[in-house]
Write a structure and sequence with these properties.
Length: 159
């Protein structure tokens, strides 16, 4: 399994991030209903979010298919192949977005070295929370630079 790691085995993966208006926690099957409601209500908005153009996501899927997707993200997290966090409102606790931290496209996780750790990051927020998108971007970018072991980070900038 060590050949499939995205981050070093001795790296303590953060359990989340808390900011004034939102908090991140690892995405899992327990978020299925709220996650499904969040992204299905904002498909066009998400597709227009920097980093999502041309990715083919989001696309129609059933709640059961969404659950399988969340289970895959949770498995990736557990096996350190990629890290997906749900974005929750600090005031209401509702799902308002998502953050994905994975190896860049075309790169599979390997045995990371100290000077060769790259991440591709994307994030979205619901259309009714669009003003939080740049706030989330800047908070996540600072968190990645401060608390994660990446040498370079691909993350579509916000205006």
């Amino acid at each position: 399994m060590s050949d499939q790691l995205f981050v070093p085995v001795d790296f303590a993966v953060p359990g989340g991030l808390t900011a004034e208006e939102f908090r991140l926690e690892p995405l899992g099957p327990q978020h299925n209903n709220a996650d499904y409601a969040a992204w299905t209500a904002s498909i066009g908005h998400i597709q227009a979010t920097p980093g999502f153009a041309g990715t083919g996501w989001p696309h129609e899927m059933s709640p059961a298919e969404n659950l399988r997707d969340l289970e895959r993200h949770a498995q990736d997290f557990a096996e350190r192949r990629g890290f997906t966090y749900t974005v929750l409102s600090t005031s209401t606790g509702e799902v308002i977005g998502c953050v994905y931290i994975y190896p860049p496209r075309g790169e599979s996780p390997g045995r990371p070295s100290a000077d060769d750790q790259h991440a591709a990051v994307s994030s979205w927020v619901r259309a009714d929370h669009a003003t939080l998108d740049p706030v989330l971007y800047h908070a996540v970018r600072a968190w990645l630079e401060r608390d994660w072991p990446f040498h370079s980070i691909e993350y579509a900038p916000r205006v």
